[in-house]
Recover the amino acids of this structure.
């Protein structure tokens, strides 16, 4: 069972047409056209001066997507259309409505090819909407205009062809107290001046928490939304059938000239896609290695970590410095006390000295009752030459959702300090495990790794490539690249950033340069890698792969195979297991969507019943086919390595998880005065 | 003897036409300001909304002046139709300096649509200062050629500000404004101070309008753009054109912004017939039929040359008194006032219409806020407050 509905096009499309963008006017109903490049538009039929090209599968996907979204746009119960991500929200499906926000059903729709056939996948999700206009937020809730020009996505109420609609926009700036400039791509490629009463800033949990007065409401917020949003696999499958019936099927058949596009009544069976499974027992084990101890292994993280017990004579002292307001200092001290002295429950015990061989010693405390205090006291600390300070690890108390979270993180990172921010006085054994592991890693240690498997060819080095948008002159205009490096046992080694901005024009130079720098640093430790996996959350272009491979070979001739693995976890593709009453697909099962000399594409279940990683794999050289099972095994292994949490295993490979964390933090840092992370931190996971 | 009922009847009958005439006077004045701007490149000239004299005030004025009138219209010595009062329409322009005032008056008098001007610099004991131009606007009313009397007040911005602060205007409301001696003295004193400032502004302006003398020769190493090389280049463009300091400054700024750094780059723009043709064509669309000057070719051509078409269009339109938006119906560029009307009085986002076509598309006053004209029963701002989700 799947959520794929097959599209048939009759007669088959063999050629398409390219048209110059200048003066292009689409003849709707007679033709379909979609963006092809900055200067060209592709169309199903020819226009005067069109150039004929052979139709490729992705061209057909673009055109079918375009026509589906054009039809959906005409549906009055559909709004907030994001063409790029293929998402629409259903006005009639209001799951929760409060004065301040509401929760609505949203559909992700994707047109794609698999096994030579064309499909549309439909995935129902939920989306939270802010219901307070910009005018209300400014007038009644003490927000300032700058709060909305940094986080500037919004919905704006506009009129086109006599029909009024809420559509997506970006707040560009304020013209007066009640007039804002908003970019509205739905209307045109420019800005409109809109009254603040018809602008709804995008939902933002932080804003909402400032708006909600009732503490109970705040507490219930997550619970309530989770309850309303959650789907079992069976509910999801049933809702897919129902949304197809209501919203997608009625669009078809579509007749454009002589071309007829139809959609299947029912989803395609999963039997038509080859599948395999890596059972949990076959996944790599967690390995904990500590100096002076034999390595220990276990399938799960906590039991593995719990197998280590340091005797008191092997425990070393780590200086720490606390920053907290008057009324939280005791709580913070108590947390440190508990980490030092231990917390127990029926399943085990954790203390920093026992499990990690480190005892904290508070060497200084700074009372910080105001933002100004925080700035001054952190200055004093960072500029201090006292050994107590220079050799210490800072722990800061900040209230939940504090505006200072990123500023303080940025400031410490700028001055080459890893830091720990604690926001809750609530502390249990699980929080203790997470906090202890976090600090242990940030001090430059490796909490755990994964075992070798002689039966599965492992990569010698795994590189997590990522990019992050940084703000420059109030717009996200700079993009920097970075690579997280993991050894063959999945231990994080270091992170390397690009020295130049990565933009569309220079990425083909910058990515290879970044790879060279990264490998040079890695090779300095005397390693000789043969197989390299590169993980990236975007698609690799053919030129990116070629140039990166050349750079790798040039730097490290011993490399024999490079796997470019592109991850997509925003896709809407789902499989359901008809043999299971819950319809859940077990972790480790993967389905091959496409496999040819050019590219291999699989959908891998990563644990969470409805979560699949969509992997596109390219191997260079490609003389032999990709061993999909080995790649799936390695990807599953990387989901066990998130040092951010010792308690919960994630469904996301750590390569992407860390990339995501770094991107989020560096992006937030770009709003502060401490924009760069000090290079001295490159071998400490300051971002976890 | 005044035939009040006939005058009122004629007034009411022709009111829609009078309103059109009032608006076309503003458009003509805006076009004159475009010419002024093209000539001197000083911005900040405001053409204010014009007012039509109400029928009751018109009759009251006739009475006060002891005039006899049995019709709103009279024939003059040349057998042309005029209106019975000399300030039937009142318009106002504010500009930077007293010299600007004088030049704008000259341009108004020279304009074909105006005739029989009487210019007077009014200086009242209260401190009020302005130039009043009583002039006729030539137009047609029911196929008859008519001269509509216009009282045009032209002031400096400082004089306008004084009027707004002291409420001392030429048009004194019925009953007048009572001021105590203290306030009158202060107002007068302030007017004198502002007049001194206006004189100082005039001096600065004169300085800005002196021409930059081009050198006779350039040295071999004069390859970069500066005041000297550009004035030489412009003077050698074939028309012996010179530029003022004002124009030179904005031109150098433009060239620097667009990274035109060498004389060779500037020459390439000056020699481009394609650019010249395009600017000429666009000027004509904006009702200016003068040839393209070297200054204009460099000033606008650099934007066109670097592909900044929308910046170019916005700028040339603004310089000639038009907005960047055109009427969706008749495709004509909107005047600044028409554009302002659409922005301020309607709930439009991107659909703009000229004065003639806007009412058909924005026919209703919002039933809720009663502020904005809209295509539906209530405006978008009010409808948005009832979010459906």
């Amino acid at each position: 069972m799947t959520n794929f509905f097959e599209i048939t096009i009759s007669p088959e499309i063999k050629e398409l047409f390219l048209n110059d963008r200048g003066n292009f006017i689409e003849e709707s109903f007679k033709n379909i056209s979609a963006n092809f490049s900055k200067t060209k538009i592709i169309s199903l039929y020819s226009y005067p001066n069109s150039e004929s090209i052979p139709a490729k599968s992705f061209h057909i996907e673009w055109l079918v997507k375009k026509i589906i979204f054009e039809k959906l746009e005409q549906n009055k119960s559909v709004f907030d259309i994001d063409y790029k991500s293929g998402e629409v929200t259903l006005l009639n499906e209001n799951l929760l409505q409060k004065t301040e926000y509401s929760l609505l059903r949203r559909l992700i729709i994707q047109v794609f090819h698999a096994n030579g056939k064309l499909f549309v996948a439909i995935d129902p999700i939920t989306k939270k909407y802010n219901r307070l206009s910009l005018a209300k937020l400014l007038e009644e809730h003490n927000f300032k205009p700058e709060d909305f020009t940094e986080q500037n996505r919004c919905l704006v109420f506009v009129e086109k062809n006599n029909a009024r609609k809420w559509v997506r926009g970006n707040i560009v700036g304020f013209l007066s107290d009640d007039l804002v400039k908003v970019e509205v791509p739905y209307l045109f490629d420019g800005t409109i001046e809109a009254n603040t009463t018809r602008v709804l800033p995008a939902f933002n949990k932080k804003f909402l928490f400032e708006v909600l007065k009732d503490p109970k409401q705040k507490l219930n917020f997550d619970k309530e939304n989770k309850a309303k949003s959650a789907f079992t696999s069976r509910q999801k499958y049933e809702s897919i059938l129902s949304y197809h019936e209501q919203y997608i099927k009625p669009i078809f058949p579509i007749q454009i000239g002589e071309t007829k596009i139809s959609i299947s009544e029912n989803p395609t069976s999963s039997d038509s896609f080859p599948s395999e499974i890596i059972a949990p027992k076959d996944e790599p084990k967690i390995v904990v290695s500590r100096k002076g101890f034999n390595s220990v292994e276990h399938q799960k993280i906590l039991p593995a970590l719990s197998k280590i017990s340091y005797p008191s004579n092997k425990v070393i002292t780590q200086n720490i410095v606390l920053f907290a307001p008057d009324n939280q200092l005791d709580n913070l001290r108590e947390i440190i006390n508990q980490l030092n002295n231990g917390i127990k429950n029926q399943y085990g015990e954790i203390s920093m000295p026992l499990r990690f061989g480190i005892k904290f010693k508070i060497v200084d405390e700074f009372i910080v009752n105001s933002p100004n205090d925080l700035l001054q006291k952190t200055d004093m600390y960072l500029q201090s030459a006292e050994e107590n300070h220079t050799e210490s690890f800072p722990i800061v108390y900040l209230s939940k959702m504090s505006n200072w979270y990123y500023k303080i993180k940025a400031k410490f990172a700028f001055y080459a300090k890893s830091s720990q921010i604690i926001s809750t006085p609530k502390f249990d054994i699980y929080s203790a495990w997470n906090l202890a592991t976090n600090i242990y890693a940030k001090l430059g240690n490796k909490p755990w790794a994964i075992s070798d498997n002689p039966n599965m060819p492992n990569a010698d080095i795994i590189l997590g490539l990522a990019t992050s948008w940084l703000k420059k002159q109030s717009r996200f205009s700079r993009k920097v690249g970075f690579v997280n490096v993991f050894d063959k046992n999945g231990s994080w080694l270091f992170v390397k950033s690009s020295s130049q901005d990565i933009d569309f024009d220079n990425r083909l130079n910058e990515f290879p340069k970044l790879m060279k720098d990264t490998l040079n640093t890695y090779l300095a430790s005397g390693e000789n890698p043969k197989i390299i996996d590169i993980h990236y959350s975007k698609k690799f272009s053919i030129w990116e792969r070629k140039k990166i491979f050349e750079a790798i070979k040039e730097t490290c001739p011993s490399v024999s195979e490079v796997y470019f693995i592109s991850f997509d976890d925003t896709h809407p593709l789902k499989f359901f297991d008809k043999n299971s009453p819950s319809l859940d697909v077990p972790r480790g099962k993967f389905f091959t969507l496409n496999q040819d000399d050019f590219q291999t594409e699989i959908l891998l279940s990563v644990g969470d019943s409805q979560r699949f990683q969509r992997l596109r794999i390219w191997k260079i050289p490609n003389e032999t086919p990709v061993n999909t099972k080995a790649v799936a095994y390695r990807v599953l292994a990387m989901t066990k390595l998130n040092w951010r949490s010792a308690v919960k295993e994630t469904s996301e490979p750590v390569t992407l998880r860390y990339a995501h964390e770094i991107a989020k933090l560096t992006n937030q840092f770009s709003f502060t005065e401490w924009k760069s992370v000090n290079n001295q931190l490159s071998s400490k996971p300051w971002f976890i | 003897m005044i035939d009040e009922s006939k005058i009122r009847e004629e007034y009411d009958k022709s009111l829609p036409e009078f309103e059109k005439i009032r608006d076309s006077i503003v458009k003509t004045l805006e076009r004159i300001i475009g010419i002024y701007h093209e000539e001197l490149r000083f911005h900040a000239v405001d053409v204010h909304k014009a007012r039509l004299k109400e029928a009751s005030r018109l009759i009251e004025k006739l009475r006060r002046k002891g005039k006899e009138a049995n019709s709103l219209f009279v024939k003059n010595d040349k057998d042309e139709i005029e209106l019975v009062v000399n300030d039937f329409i009142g318009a106002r322009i504010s500009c930077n300096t007293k010299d600007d005032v004088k030049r704008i008056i000259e341009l108004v008098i020279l304009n074909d649509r105006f005739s029989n001007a009487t210019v007077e610099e009014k200086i009242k004991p209260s401190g009020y200062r302005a130039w009043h131009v009583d002039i006729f606007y030539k137009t047609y009313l029911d196929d008859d050629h008519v001269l509509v009397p216009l009282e045009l007040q032209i002031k400096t911005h400082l004089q306008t500000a004084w009027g707004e602060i002291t409420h001392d205007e030429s048009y004194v409301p019925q009953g007048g404004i009572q001021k105590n001696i203290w306030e009158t003295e202060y107002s007068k004193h302030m007017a004198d101070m502002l007049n001194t400032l206006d004189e100082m502004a005039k001096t600065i302006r004169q300085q800005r309008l002196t021409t930059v003398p081009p050198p006779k020769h350039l040295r071999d190493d004069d390859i970069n753009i500066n005041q000297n090389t550009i004035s030489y280049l412009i003077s050698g463009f074939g028309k012996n054109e010179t530029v003022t300091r004002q124009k030179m400054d904005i031109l150098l700024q433009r060239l620097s912004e667009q990274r035109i750094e060498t004389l060779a780059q500037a020459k390439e723009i000056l020699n481009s017939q394609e650019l010249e043709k395009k600017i000429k064509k666009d000027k004509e669309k904006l009702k200016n039929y003068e040839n393209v000057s070297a200054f204009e070719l460099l000033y606008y051509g650099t934007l066109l040359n670097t592909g900044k078409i929308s910046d170019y269009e916005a700028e040339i339109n603004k310089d000639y008194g038009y907005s960047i938006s055109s009427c969706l119906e008749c495709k004509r560029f909107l005047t600044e006032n028409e554009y302002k009307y659409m922005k301020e009085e309607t709930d439009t986002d991107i659909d703009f219409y000229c004065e003639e076509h806007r009412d058909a598309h924005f026919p209703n006053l919002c039933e809720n806020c009663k502020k904005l004209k809209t295509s539906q029963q209530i405006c978008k701002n009010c409808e948005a407050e009832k979010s459906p989700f």
